[in-house]
Automatic annotation (TrEMBL):
One of its GO terms (molecular function) is zinc ion binding. InterPro entries: Znf_C2H2_sf, Znf_C2H2_type. It comes from the Eukaryota. It comes from Pararge aegeria aegeria. Residues 67-89 form the C2H2-type domain. Keywords: Metal-binding, Zinc, Zinc-finger. This is Jg25747 protein. The gene is jg25747. Pfam families: zf-C2H2 (PF00096), zf-met (PF12874).
Length: 125
């Protein structure tokens, strides 16, 4: 089972000032909520939300090399890396006015122009 209802009298965190109470002592309006424990079926890590659980499954246990470049056949694990690679196959539309450098990416041209200006390029993504 990937999730089970928490019916035991365990301590739970409430939204009100982050206080902790026993489930049995919660106000009546909160007793209607079912507290669910989510955990990864593969590695048994527990999560507090379905979003965290889904993100973990997609990033950690996803089939490796899921994305393939249709142009050259190179494989990628992450969609973002695949997309960045595909942009490299586009025809160069941005050109340097000082040399014959051309690129399909405006960001790469801006970085290149800093070299002509004598500035160091230390970009962090």
């Amino acid at each position: 089972k990937s999730a089970e209802n928490c019916t035991e009298n365990k301590t739970v965190k409430t939204k009100k000032r982050g206080t902790y109470r026993k489930r049995g002592s919660l106000p009546a309006r909160m007793k209607k909520f079912k507290f669910v424990k989510l955990f990864c079926e593969t590695c048994q890590i527990k999560f507090t939300s379905k979003i965290e659980s889904d993100k973990h499954r997609e990033t950690v246990h996803k089939e490796p090399w899921s994305f393939m470049c249709e142009v050259c056949g190179k494989m990628f694990v992450h969609r973002g890396s695949h997309y960045a690679h595909l942009r490299g196959h586009l025809p160069p539309t941005h050109a340097c006015g000082d040399c014959d450098y051309r690129t399909p990416n405006k960001y790469d041209l801006a970085k290149h122009l800093l070299i002509h200006a004598g500035k160091t390029v230390d970009w962090v993504h």
